[in-house]
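dumping this here so i dont lose it again. seq + smiles for adenosine-5'-diphosphate
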Amino acid sequence: MSVIETRDLTYTYPGVTKPSIEEVSVTINKGDFVILTGPSGCGKTTLCRCFNGLIPHFYNGDLEGKIEVAGLNVVDHQIHQIARHVGLVFQNPENQLFALSVEKDVAFGLENFAMPRDEMRKRVDWALQMAGISELSERPPHELSGGQQQRVAIASVLAMQPDIMVLDEPTSFLDPVGAEKIFEVINELNKKLGITIILVEHRLDLAAKYANHVIVMNKGKIALTGSPREIFTSEEARLIGVGIPKATKLYQHLKKHGIRLKAVPVTTEETADLLREILKND
Amino acid sequence: MIEVKDLYYTYPTGLEALKGISLTVNDGEFLAVMGQNGAGKTTLVKHFNGLLKPTKGEILVDGVSTRDVSVAQLARNVGFVFQNPDHQLFSETVEEEIVFALRNFGFEKAVIEKQVDWALNLLDVTQYRKTSPFMLSGGERKRVALASILAWDPQVIILDEPTIGQDHQQKEKLQQFILQLNAQKKTVIVVTHDVEFVAECSPRVILMSQGKIVVDGTAKKILTNPKVLAQASIVPPQITQIFLELADLGLPTDVIDVHEATKILLNRLRKRS
Ligand SMILES: Nc1ncnc2c1ncn2[C@@H]1O[C@H](COP(=O)(O)OP(=O)(O)O)[C@@H](O)[C@H]1O
Ligand SMILES: Nc1ncnc2c1ncn2[C@@H]1O[C@H](COP(=O)(O)OP(=O)(O)O)[C@@H](O)[C@H]1O
Ligand SMILES: [Mg+2]
Ligand SMILES: [Mg+2]
């Protein structure tokens, strides 16, 4: 069942002539874990803004084509109606945080839901804990480091438990262990609660193992879509400049020298298993 | 040469961010400072150009204590590209941004013009000459910040988290660029938690955790030591992880590079057949 469907979506920001996304047609199904990637400036953030209705309701400009999210026509519904279904973690967390304390920022979205107070309390505590920032709850967000702010932005969206989570480069400031923990949390929400995930990410070696689908954009258009395996072995993806995980690169180098692994590995574990097989049988 | 002698630093808030750091960075060296968020990496490198002064201990840059010279004097030799370029850029156009420092250092007009052209071209931002830095994307702003520093040709270049927010191709370009600077005998100090980037550049690495240096050595030695990396919230590069999993088959466990990995596997398979 599709939860996001766009047809020939074209959008031009006000005051510019060139569209930032052009004729984008994508289908995202319920429970998908999608990685959206592509060179800087290719339109990833712009497309994310369409998914939660910021475009066209907050950014004016010119939107053409069709977009339906959670069964709602985005153009005909207001932002708060769409927000019940879609949570967006902004690329730049500073733009998302405005309350006087971390806790208030995380509770903000829930206040519009008319949720009982103790239920709200539980949700906020849970979200803070999942994002690893329980001890920061009283701190003003604008005094925190970039990495800590990113965690707050993630917690704010987690608290809402939306059907669809869109995360725009959510862990760029975090150290590798910190980033991995966040990806694990997102993955758990996806696998256990069936929350649809759209993750914008360049570091595919960290994120690839969680995804079932990859969308590559280039110059405002959808360039490629497919499974991680298909995308990472595609020559086109390499030419566009997608950062192929080292595991897949190793597979390709070996293949060039006449050594074929049984399957295309995407993760560390898969690669180790496939190598073990040929090293033993040889 | 930068000599750090038993450096302690406490922020005005009372937070002790550095707890006894000793380190020597030689001229022409390429050093990566790695470690978890909040380890004190930025605090440490801010001491190298005098932005912060030690609470205890001292820093000598070419033999002179940073306590005895101003940031402006130090800047001539030590250029610093901030983690967030917004903290650095303030001019109305990209060009003025670059001209500003050069004028402050008292360069002549003709030299300034030449250096500006050179730096804009080098970092591929010539087309934004008359644009406000704030109209540019994060990655472009970072390149402008770097251009403005390279324009006055400092001996030491410090980059704080240069790969954040850069896409794959920009990262590769940056990597080539840094290696090129280093080949020209510049001292390059990069603060980063990007292991794949470090694995490809292979600099000397210091690993920090909680205000201290945990270990100091080659990229190959440190990135292949998962125990030590874990103390600093760093995960080994993917190639290293694969080889660590296969250690029981007698493969080496100190591999960080995909080309080296390919060679080792080919040798092993050929020997057997
Ligand atoms: N608010 C805006 N106004 C005008 N142009 C914009 C705005 N935001 C982004 N753009 C332009 O739209 C294009 C796509 O940008 P963006 O969606 O941010 O790309 P990405 O997230 O893939 O880096 C770029 O050319 C960018 O300069
Ligand atoms: N201006 C400041 N005032 C008070 N504490 C600070 C300031 N800047 C950083 N800190 C604290 O000092 C410690 C080290 O920070 P920093 O050097 O920025 O770490 P890193 O660069 O390794 O992430 C952290 O605990 C951080 O919260
Ligand atoms: Mg973006
Ligand atoms: Mg820092």
